[in-house]
Specification:
about 20% strand; Hypothetical Protein Ta0175, Chain: A, domain 2; alpha/beta; about 425 residues; single chain; 16 strands; Nucleotidyltransferase, domain 5; 3 domains
Length: about 425
């Protein structure tokens, strides 16, 4: 599976088509199988603001606070702009706000929905680092129209490549301390403008004094393909689907549950946990199979022992059901010897007489010689406690007694009970 990306064009046209990019599973991890809308870097402006505590608890308060703070930085009316805060921003601390034209974004999302694509996430093509001390730079465009994007202590801005490098170096030199110039900086560049960016960097490095050249000489151009750039944008944890563009209800929970599962199933950080769970499940399966094997062996041994006892006691009997045949053979021997068993009325009457509480009398006895012998008694008036004691006493004599209103049904217990 993979994640499908649609890049939104800067200018809306009727019947427009969207550039599609497919990110493989290993690049998106927990966000596999999602659909992203990529907002071009040129469609966004970035602003650093500080929000008071408490507004993050209600989306309406947060939206109103953002619009109020953005009245001066924005050239357009804040209500006409879609504003998004960085993830996990902290109150009373500087945080990034992304701004883009609301009508433009709504138009493209509606177009994608009409095409049958449900957008799970709105991702900025480029975003500044949320680390206040980190400097990032990116060169984009074509050789005829190359742009420099910078995120530094002054904010986030873009200028044409040559003018941007000049402006940036002037800013850095104005600091007055060569140590304030970032060292070992990697300027990411699209493949189409990589050579142009390299030449511009060499010119920059060759036109400075030794005190600053040492810092600039550590800068390097890093070529980043479109797939790598989109994967990096997705990993930045930015999602512009906020406020009126946010997914609501079960859709949001399903997305979150899906990401958590994908993160556990495929994330490198969870590899040890997955192995541990697999070992645990395997150990449980092995343990259950061993326990079942032992139990089956015990049952088989018990059956063999019963067959052995039956064949030794009654050699002429063909074994079919050893416990039942043993009980029948014993009853036959008892009858031949004139002894009573739990199936006989004499046995039942003796047991009932010994178990009945004093003062109790039986008004009617009905005896039927069936498989285990059935005796029905009527006229007993026993309390709940006496009922329990009466049934318990008869059970010790090999009889099962069940009460129904004032009638008792007594039968001989089957062998093995």
């Amino acid at each position: 599976m993979s994640t499908l990306l649609f890049t939104l064009p800067l200018h809306s046209e009727n019947g427009e088509s969207y550039a599609q990019t497919v990110l493989p599973t290993q690049m998106v991890g927990a966000r596999d199988k999602e659909i992203w809308a990529i907002v071009p870097a040129a469609a966004l402006s970035w602003h650093r603001v500080t929000l008071p505590a408490g507004v993050q608890r209600q989306a309406s308060r947060l939206s109103a606070a953002l619009q109020s703070l953005m009245e001066e930085p924005l050239l357009d009316d804040p209500e006409a702009m879609h504003l998004s805060m960085q993830a996990e921003w902290e109150a009373n601390s500087p945080g990034w706000v992304a701004a883009c034209n609301k009508a433009w974004l709504k138009h493209h999302l509606s177009q994608l929905q009409a095409m049958g694509h449900v957008v799970h996430r709105i991702v900025p093509e480029w975003s500044p680092s949320t680390d206040l001390g980190k400097v990032t730079a990116w060169v984009s465009g074509t050789p005829e129209d190359a742009w420099l994007w910078v995120n530094d202590a002054q904010g986030a801005w873009r200028l044409p490549l040559i003018a941007g490098l000049k402006h940036w170096t002037e800013q850095l030199l104005s600091l007055g301390n060569a140590q304030d110039i970032p060292a070992n900086l990697r300027l990411q560049a699209d493949p189409a403008v990589a050579d142009l960016a390299q030449n511009a960097l060499r010119q920059l490095q060759s036109h400075h004094q030794a005190a600053t050249a040492e810092r600039f000489n550590t800068w390097r151009i890093e070529v980043v393909t479109g797939l790598q750039r989109y994967a990096k944008a997705g990993a930045a944890n930015w999602d512009l689907a906020q406020f009126e563009f946010a997914a609501h209800g079960s859709a949001r929970w399903l997305q979150k549950a899906h990401r958590l599962w994908q993160s556990f199933a495929k994330g490198q950080a969870w590899q040890a946990a997955r192995w541990g769970l697999a070992v645990l499940v395997a150990a449980q399966c092995v343990g259950l199979n061993v326990a079942a094997w032992q139990l089956n062996a015990q049952v088989k041994l018990q059956k063999e022992l019963q067959k052995s006892i039956l064949t030794q006691s009654f050699p002429n009997v063909t074994v079919v059901d050893a416990p039942l045949q043993m009980a029948k053979e014993l009853e036959r021997l008892q009858r031949n010897a004139g002894a009573v068993s739990s199936r006989d009325l004499e046995w039942v009457l003796q047991a009932v007489g010994a178990a009945l509480p004093a003062g109790q009398s039986i008004s009617n006895i009905d005896y039927q010689l069936q498989s285990n012998g059935e005796t029905r008694l009527q006229g007993l008036q026993l309390s709940d406690a006496q009922n329990s004691e009466f049934a318990k006493a008869l059970r010790h004599q090999g009889l099962d007694a069940q009460a129904s209103a004032a009638q008792w049904r007594i039968v001989g217990l089957k062998a093995g009970l």
